[in-house]
Amino acid sequence: MGDLQIEMLHGKDQESQLLHHPDRVTVEGLIHQSLEAKEFSYCPYSNFRVGAALLAHDDRVFTGCNVENACNNLGVCAERNAIAKAVSEGRRSFKAIAIASDLHDQFISPCGGCRQFMREFGANWDVYLTKPDGSYIEMKVSELLPVSFGPEDLSMKKVVKIPNEY
Asked: Is residue 43 marked as binding?
């Protein structure tokens, strides 16, 4: 799981320990928080609820949900909502994000815009694609968005003079 120090524990009897242990954030705890965030979704048009829980490097968790708008392109996805909340509170480095929805037959996957938004903050952090039962697939941002463009690409050597001929 990269540099993410998440302890993998399973079982109902360990649930309260997993979610509330002060010294660690678990995969299950992060997924649980994404499922809780989903409950706050505002999605009157699609009825497609999504929640996200983002783990910063200081172990603070930021949650987000999707917020739709009658003007479709003004809606905000849960992942971008959580990241924007973290950035607005001074965080720029992340360990993991868990994404939850109501899909039972497949794991939720972030849209292309969210993949690029996550990539802005690094390619090598964990993304947990979940189902409502808590099962998940772990991927890296780089796997979700291969051959990506990121901030470091802006400092690469460029053509010095670009002709502007019409």
From this structure: no
